[in-house]
Amino acid sequence: MFMKSLPHGVIFLLMTFLSHSAYSLLSFNEMIISSEVLRESKVFPFRFYFENTGEYPIEIKKISTSCGCTIVKPVKNSYSPKDKGDIEGADIIGDRIGNQEQEIIIETNDISKRYYKLTLRLHIKQKIDSTPRILIWRINEEPTPKNVTISSIVPIKIQSIQAISNDFTISNIENKGDNMKFEFYIKPKPIKNEQKQKLK
Question: The whole model's pTM is what?
Answer without folding.
Answer: 0.62
